[in-house]
Design a protein that fits this description.
This protein has three helices and eight strands. It has 144 residues and is of the alpha+beta class. This is S-protein homolog.
């Protein structure tokens, strides 16, 4: 094996030794909502779940239409006490964004339900974002 091949082999070995532990480990600075570099890498491989929940009164049906830049998740009519949910993995190069349109009676709202932000990750307990529609508004459940 010539010296060039040996150098390339050594370089690839060093890269694999340094990258694999970064991807496999995860840590969060306590109570700051900021992610370190290891956590950012591990979030690329994380499966996230988004839940939209109908918690309206008087048997009101909630219309939900969610999408991302790449996927239209369809229109769903939720009866009280039911939910529409989906799972996904963030885009490796960033920019993952999901938004929903929700409506009932003559009220409606369109808003982001997932975006890449450490404070959102913390509120979603690093895996599950619960958006709950109630008579007085739509809330993100802050999971402790």
């Amino acid at each position: 094996m010539n010296s060039f091949c040996k150098n390339i082999t050594f370089f690839m070995l060093v890269q694999s030794i340094t990258i694999i532990p970064l991807v496999a480990s995860s840590s969060l600075e306590p109570d700051q909502g900021h992610l370190d570099d290891n956590s950012r890498l591990s979030l690329w491989f994380k499966t996230w779940h988004v839940h939209t929940v109908n918690d309206l009164s008087n048997n009101k049906t909630l219309l939900v239409h969610c999408k991302s830049r790449d996927d239209d998740l369809g229109i769903h009519n939720l009866t009280v006490g039911t939910e529409f949910n989906w799972k996904f993995r963030p885009r490796i190069f960033g920019g993952t964004l999901f938004w929903c349109y929700m409506a009932y009676d003559n009220l409606h709202a369109a808003f982001k339900v997932f975006w890449e932000d450490p404070s959102l990750y913390a509120k979603c307990n690093y895996g599950d974002c619960y958006w709950i529609a109630r008579d007085d508004g739509i809330y993100l459940k802050n999971i402790p």
